[in-house]
Amino acid sequence: MAWISNDPERGFFGHPRGLAPLFFAEMWERFSFYGMRALLTLYLVKHFMYSDEQASFIYASYASLNYAMPVIGGLIADRYLGNRKAVMLGAILLVCGHIGMAFEGAPAQIIDGVIVRQSPYDQIMFLSLAFIIVGVGFLKSNISTMVGKLYANKDDPRRDPGYTIFYMGVNLGSFMSTIACGYLGETYGWAYGFGLAGLGMVAGLIVFARGTQWYRNSEPPDPVALRARTRAGLSLEWIIYAGAVAAVFVNWQLVQMHAVVGSLLLAIATVVLLGILWFSLTQCTKIERDRMVVVLVLTALSVVFWTLFEQAGTSLTLFADRNSDRSLFGFIIPASVVQVFNPMFIVLLAPVFSWGWVKLAQKGLEPSTPLKFALAIIQVGLGFGALVVGASLAGEDGQTALFWLALAYLLHTTGELCLSPVGLSMISRLSVARITAMVMGVWFLASSGAHFLAGIVAAMASTSTEPGREMTAVESLPVYTAVFHDLFIGAAVIGVIVVLISPFLKRLMHMDAADMHVTNGKPPKKG
C-alpha cells in the first residue's frame, strides 16, 4: 500500500511508521470498548433483570472506575514498567474481560415473585468488567503517550496531525463497533455482540505486539531494576503483574458497591482540591494563582458537561429502546445502535469545526476557552430540550420520532467538539509547571466523577426501581420527559452564567492573543 512503508520516519501517511500499529491497536481497542458499552445497560436490564436504577448504578461504578484507573496505570508505567509493557499488560487484561462478557448464561427469571439469576454468570460479568477496568487503566493513557514519543522533536509540525490521525482511529472503532456489536447483540444474542467486541480486542493486541520494533522511548526507565529479584524471589515486574491481578479482584467487588465507589471518589476529590488550594495560596504567584482558579473552574464545568453527555450509555439508550420509533425504511434499528450518531457526527463535523475555528481566529472572532465551555454546556442542554419537544409530539403509543434522538445526539456532539479538543490543551497551558502532571490526573479524576454523577442522573430517569418490572411506553414517557426537562433547564442556566463570567475568566488566564491560540484540528478523544 502506497500510504504505508517500512520507512521509520515517514512510513505511515508521512508520519513515523510506529503510528500505524498504534492507530490500528487503538481502533480495535475502542471497537471492543464501545461495542461492549453499547450493549451493557440493555444487557443488565433485559438479561439479568436489574432495575433501571440498579443498572444505572452498576454502569456508573464501572465507567467511573474506568476513568480513575489510568492515573495509577500511567504512574506505574512512567516510574517502573514503561509504556509498551503497560499497554501489553492492559491489552491482555482487556482480552480476558471482553471474552468473559460473552459468557451470558440463561436469562434471569421471576419465580414466585423473586428474580432468580443463573449462578455464577452474573459474577462472571462483574469479574469481566473488573478485568476491563484494570486493562483500560494500563492501556488508556500509555498508548496516547507513545504516540507523542514517536516524534523526537517536540516542535515537529507533524505531531498534532499525528494525534488527529490517531484519534480518527478512536472514532472509527467506536463507529463500527456500535453498529456491529449492537446489532449482533440485540438481534442474535448478547454473547455474539460481546464476543465480537472480544475478537476486536484480540486483533488490537496482535497489531500492537507486531509493531514493537517501531516504538520509541517506551521501554522501562530502569530495565535492570525492573527485572532484579527481590527477597520474595520475584522481580519487580512480576510483582506489578501480580498487583494488577489483585486490582482486578478489588475492582470486582467495587463495581458492585456503588456507595463505596462514590465515597472513595468524594474523599479523593476533597483531598486533591484542598491540596491544590493550599498550593495555589502558598506556593504560587498572583498570575499562577489566577490561572489555577480558571483550571478548577474549567474542570468543574467539564464535570457538568460529561455528566449530561454520558447519559448516552444509560438513560438515552433506555429511552431509545422504550420510547423511540426506530423504524427506518422498513428496518428496525436496535436501541444500542442509536449510539452510533455520536461518532458519525464527529467524523463528519470535526473537519468543519477545525476549519471554522481557524477562520474565526484569523478574524479575531474565535471564542475564548471559557466561552467554548459555556457553548458546550448550552448545546448539551439543548439536546435534552429537543427530546422534550419530541416527547410533546409523541403519538398515543408513547413513541417519539427517531429524528429527535438524532437531533439530540447532534447537539451533544457539537457541544463535545467545543469542549473536548481544547480541554487538555488549555489545562496544560494554565497549570503551574511544577504540578502539571498532577493537574492532568485531576482532569481524569473529574471525568471519573462525571461518570459517577451520570449514573445518579440516569437513576432519576428510572421508570421503575422494581427489578423485572417494566413500564409501558405510555407510562415511561412522562418520567423521561420530566428528567430531560430538568436537565435542559439546568444546563441552560449554568451555560448562561458561564457566558456572563467568561470575560472575567479570560482575564484571569493572563494570556495574550498568541498564547490563546489552541489547535482545534483534532477530533475529541473518546473516553
Secondary-structure topology with pairs:
Layout: H1 19-47, H2 52-81, H3 83-100, E1 109-111, E2 114-116, H4 121-149, H5 159-187, H6 190-210, H7 223-227, H8 236-254, H9 258-283, H10 286-309, H11 315-323, E3 324-325, E4 327-328, E5 331-332, H12 341-362, H13 369-392, E6 400-401, H14 402-430, H15 436-460, H16 473-509, H17 513-516
Helix pairs in contact: 1-2, 1-4, 1-5, 1-6, 2-3, 2-4, 2-8, 2-15, 3-4, 3-6, 4-8, 5-6, 5-12, 9-15, 10-13, 10-14, 10-15, 10-16, 11-16, 12-14, 13-14, 13-16
Strand content: under 5%
Question: Residue ranges: pLDDT <50 for 5 or more in a row?
Answer: 516-522
Domain count: 2
Helix/strand order: HHHEEHHHHHHHHEEEHHEHHHH
Strand-pairing-aware structural class: mainly alpha
Strand order of the largest sheet: 1-2
CATH topology-level fold name of the largest domain: Growth Hormone, Chain: A
CATH superfamily of the largest domain: MFS general substrate transporter like domains
Q: What CATH architecture of the largest domain do you see?
A: Up-down Bundle
- Give the overall shape: globular
> Can you count the helices?
17
Termini distance? 31 Å
Average predicted confidence as pLDDT: 88
- DSSP helix fraction: over 70%
Number of strands: 6
- Please compute the radius of gyration using only Cα atoms: 23 Å
CATH classification class of the largest domain: Mainly Alpha
Largest sheet: 2 strands, antiparallel
Descriptive notes:
The protein has 527 residues and is mostly helical. It has 2 domains: 15-256, Growth Hormone, Chain: A; 258-527, MFS general substrate transporter like domains (Growth Hormone, Chain: A), CATH 1.20.1250. It has helices spanning 19-47, 52-81, 83-100, 121-149, 159-187, 190-210, 223-227, 236-254, 258-283, 286-309, 315-323, 341-362, 369-392, 402-430, 436-460, 473-509, 513-516; strands at 109-111, 114-116, 324-325, 327-328, 331-332, 400-401. It has a two-stranded antiparallel sheet. β4 and β5 (331-332) form a beta hairpin. α2 (52-81) packs antiparallel against α8, α10 runs antiparallel to α14 and α10 runs antiparallel to α16.
